[in-house]
Amino acid sequence: METMTFQDNNPIVKAFNFAYNAHKNTHRKSSTIPYIVHPLDVASTLMKNNALEHVVIAGLLHDVVEDEDVTLSDIRDAFGEAVATLVDGASEPEELIHADGGKSKTWPERKAHTIEFIKNAGRDMKLLSCADKLANLRDIIRDYDRLGDGVWDIFNASKTSVAWYYTSMLDAFGNGDEGIRDMPAFKEFEKCVGGDVWGWVRGWCMELEDGRYVGK
What we know:
By secondary structure, the protein is mostly helical.
């Protein structure tokens, strides 16, 4: 993909240019789909949920630090502290990725950290994460319809582990006074993981007495 620049003073357009050029040589996992479609999907969901401008910008940029040769300082200098804080929250901590002599923590360990972080996060961070995970879950559902159980070959985790993660994230998004249960993104996510439309996801899991879900 070639470098692209749309001439516009709108900060969201500036963020799109930045994200497009950062991800231009990257594709979605196990596909030929340009990676930029994912942050666009996230930003679109955020805008449909009336997110503030800096949250939409963070949606466009949320993977550039974790996945590309971009630093938080780059984000802070170009887009400000509020955006950088959200992008930082959306990125897995370096100590989890390169822990104990360069070895990454396991997939469940890293996801458990994300669940706990989002459970205690503010409303903007919850909404950003929900839009991100909702975009991923939509892709999983589409791929599941096409590939069946072959979709799990894409992941470094089992079907039940993925189900545990998404049902736990649902609980985290709704947790506390900063929960986003009133937001359309949350309600769509809830349908995907346990409602009438996509109940098969929660069907992978076993509900415990305290309302938590674990893989069967």
